[in-house]
Specification:
The protein is an alpha+beta fold. Helix content is 69%, strand content 7%. It has 20 helices and 5 strands.
Length: 486
């Protein structure tokens, strides 16, 4: 929408219910966070946040938050390039995740607004947004389903629940190692003490500390002084290690329930937020496809609106997908014979488990066989059985359905964008032709010209989406958060 000497992009960024007595304060808090985050993300462009408006939602009791982002008026060619940049920044920057971090209870998703009076610039913005969704989320190496598959296959690199509370978990793991190898550590320390005349040094701890400080700050002149200071420093380290090993069991007992409680709360909360955001947007693609089916000659604007509705759902896909695998990783860690490996085995640390399970994706079948042998030696055959049971359970993980839904959305989005390109060529629309020229090869489809194909395609896709959404909701309802990370 053009206003005087400005180009204005109108976006719906949030939809939800707010108690009447808190409506204004909450909306102001949201828009403050939006302004700061958007202006920071767009800091290297002329685009800047302008104003906000609230719109009534189709769902009773809910509101939609519309924001306007402004740009100085420029010539048409530069304007289209500026709109293209804005769409990319909104979809592929860290802006959505930053906003979720500021307001974790809110679901932010960007979509061109069709509220009120829609002018030619609104239509162009909607087309470019539609193109950006397909270009960056639906095709090529960066498409969303490929990212999801990489997350699924990379057991090592996922956002593991073991590292939600890194310092506390690190201390727990250190205590575990100290407790597991206490005898070996004590033997080692005794040898060091004997080598360094430790009996005498342990009786003079104060001097040893002073010597270390002097060595660090002023330097020592002779080799004898340096050797003496080194021996004293070793004695200090030995005593500290002995002290830690002595308290390791008590330390673990104190940390374990705190880590379990914290992680269970975090996992459950994140799942609820991600699930609610996705479910809230899950009907939009089906509704948009049904609307297209009822139209004899949908316009380019109708087609773009459909893809943009898909885009709203895609923006809430990755957080839910990530959380589903976070939960499955936590469940894996409760298989005691796997997550707590036998002392002296190749899986002596928690990291070894993640390495073994990642072997198939990193090194192929040979690496997986080697990893399996290592697990068997370290944990026993019972651990392998438990691991297989856990692996089979993942076949029922709702993430599988979520990935299928994303692939359907990608395919249909590409199909619809192809229709927009075909119409642009037929109507000799230079703006849309130029916008989609670099995607020409991906947008070709021999079925476009077949009579009745489009409506049949929409029907098949909408039915598949409806069935998959039903299965996803059923799977999510059964997915309990009962795991901890240790």
């Amino acid at each position: 929408m053009a206003r005087g000497d400005l180009i204005v992009a109108r976006l719906i960024v949030w939809e939800g219910a707010v108690p009447a007595d808190k409506f204004r304060s909450q909306i102001q808090a949201l828009t403050k966070a939006l302004k700061e985050s958007i202006d920071y993300t767009l800091r290297n462009t002329p685009w800047r946040y302008q104003i906000w408006k609230t719109r009534p939602s189709a769902d009773e009791g809910k509101h939609r938050l519309e924001i306007h982002i402004k740009h100085p008026m420029v010539a048409d060619k530069e304007k289209y390039a500026a709109i293209d940049t804005l769409c990319q920044m909104l979809l592929i920057s860290d802006l959505p995740s930053n906003l979720r971090g500021l307001h974790p209870g809110m679901s932010f998703a960007f979509c061109p607004s069709t509220e009120g009076i829609v002018d030619s610039n609104d239509e162009v913005f909607a087309q470019y947004f539609c193109k950006t969704i397909v270009e960056y989320l639906c095709i090529g190496d960066g498409k969303l389903s490929k990212k999801m598959e990489a997350m699924r296959d990379s057991f090592m690199d996922r956002n593991s629940t073991k590292f939600f509370h890194q310092p506390m978990v690190g201390m727990y793991n250190l205590a575990t190692q100290s407790e597991r190898y206490a005898n070996q550590i004590q033997d080692l320390l005794l040898g060091i003490d004997t080598f360094n005349n430790g009996t005498k040094l342990r009786g003079d701890m104060q001097k040893a500390v002073v010597a270390v400080v002097v060595a660090g700050n002023k330097g020592l002149k002779t080799q004898q002084e340096k050797a003496s200071a080194m021996a004293q420093g070793i004695a200090v380290a030995c005593e500290l290690i002995r002290g830690f090993v002595a308290v390791a069991p008590e330390l673990k007992d104190a940390l374990r329930p705190q880590i379990q409680r914290l992680n269970e709360v975090v996992i459950a909360a994140r799942l609820v937020l991600a699930k609610n955001a996705y479910i809230a947007n899950s009907n939009k693609p089906i509704e948009a496809l049904e609307k297209l089916r009822r139209m004899d000659n949908p316009t380019n604007e109708d087609l773009a609106t459909t893809v943009n509705a898909f885009g709203i759902l895609m923006q809430s896909t990755l957080p839910l997908f990530d959380q589903l695998y976070t939960i499955s990783d936590a469940e894996f860690s409760t298989v005691a014979s796997l997550s707590l490996a036998a002392g002296g085995g190749v899986l002596a640390s928690a990291g070894g488990v993640w390495w073994a399970m990642a072997a198939s994706s990193v090194g192929g079948p040979v690496a997986m066989i080697a990893a399996g042998a290592a697990v068997a030696v370290g944990c026993g055959v019972g651990a392998i059985v438990k691991g297989i049971e856990w692996g089979n359970k993942q076949k029922l993980n709702p993430s599988i359905v979520l990935l299928e839904i994303q692939k359907s959305l990608q395919e249909c989005s590409l199909f619809i964008l192809g229709l927009i390109y075909m119409a642009a060529q037929r109507d000799k629309n230079p703006v849309y032709q130029a916008m989609l020229q670099h995607l020409e090869e991906q947008l070709k489809n021999a079925n476009y010209a077949k009579k009745g194909y489009q409506k049949g395609y929409y029907k098949n896709v909408s039915e598949k989406l409806a069935n998959d959404m039903k299965d996803l909701k059923k799977g999510l309802a059964k997915y309990n958060v009962t795991a901890s990370t240790i």
